[in-house]
């Protein structure tokens, strides 16, 4: 007899049940081994990046399989809010979807429809062939599927900032994520994620989300800024990534050993 499986709680479920700010990091290297190391770190969230990282469907699948053994909740960022791409991610078992660059209520509503089966959406039906249903081993998957998927949308532009409260109120949007880097660029402050205007804008989105009853997270690699957003009411924070941790740690080794060995001054610390 096949094993009948119960689905794990979604990212939205975890946020609703949390009694503290959740913390996570990005998996950008495309390595299942690295994703597994991150998942076992004790952080709450591992966010697999399909937008700015060299990953495809097979890599995302392998990372999801590696993370599955750990309590950390996996979230997958799609490269684009395209219904076909989202269908593929959902079918391979990405239960928690993050869509970048959502600027309006209309776009948010379209993303909700993309992750839901008819009559409430347009997701193509292929669950018997897919890991999402564990090949029909999750009982009543089709009837339950809309409740087994979590959708987070990113607020990354001035247009999205102005519409943040309305986007947060869209039925089917489980959470928002503010991307300060793109938001800063949209505000004419490229590379200035910690500019006071950008911080004020992020805190505006946090407050708009709280008013709508929708959790808001922020990408915040600077610890002091992350602490500020947590105090402002952010429901979750992404505080690092595998590639930046490796880059800074390897630079630290070079500063300590190579700089001393050749007599040159070590590079600036990070």
Q: Could you provide a short overview of the structure?
A:
This protein is 42% helix and 15% strand. It contains 12 helices and 8 strands.
Provide an overview of this structure:
This protein has 270 residues and is of the alpha/beta class. The chain has one domain: Alpha-Beta Barrel (TIM Barrel), CATH 3.20.20. 42% of the residues lie in helices and 15% in strands. The chain contains twelve helices and eight strands. An eight-stranded parallel β-barrel has the order 1-2-3-4-5-6-7-8, surrounded by eight helices. Helix 2 (32-39) runs parallel beside helix 3. The chain is globular. The N and C termini lie far apart (55 Å). The model is unreliable at 266-270 (pLDDT under 50).
The number of domains is 1
Percentage of residues assigned to helices: 40-55%
Lateral strand order in the biggest sheet: 1-2-3-4-5-6-7-8
For the largest beta-sheet, the strand count, sense and barrel status come to:
8 strands, parallel, barrel
CATH class assignment: Alpha Beta
Shape call = globular
Approximately how much beta-strand content do the residues carry? Answer: 5-15%
Order of helices and strands: HEHEHEHEHHEHHEHHEHEH
Sequence stretches where pLDDT stays below 50 over 5 or more residues: 266-270
Overall residue-averaged pLDDT value: 94
Q: N- to C-terminal separation?
A: 55 Å
Using only CA atoms, what is the Rg? 19 Å
Q: How many individual β-strands?
A: 8
CATH superfamily: Phosphoenolpyruvate-binding domains
CATH level-3 fold name:
TIM Barrel
Structural class computed from helices and strand pairing: alpha/beta
- CATH architectural type: Alpha-Beta Barrel
What is the overall number of helices?
A: 12
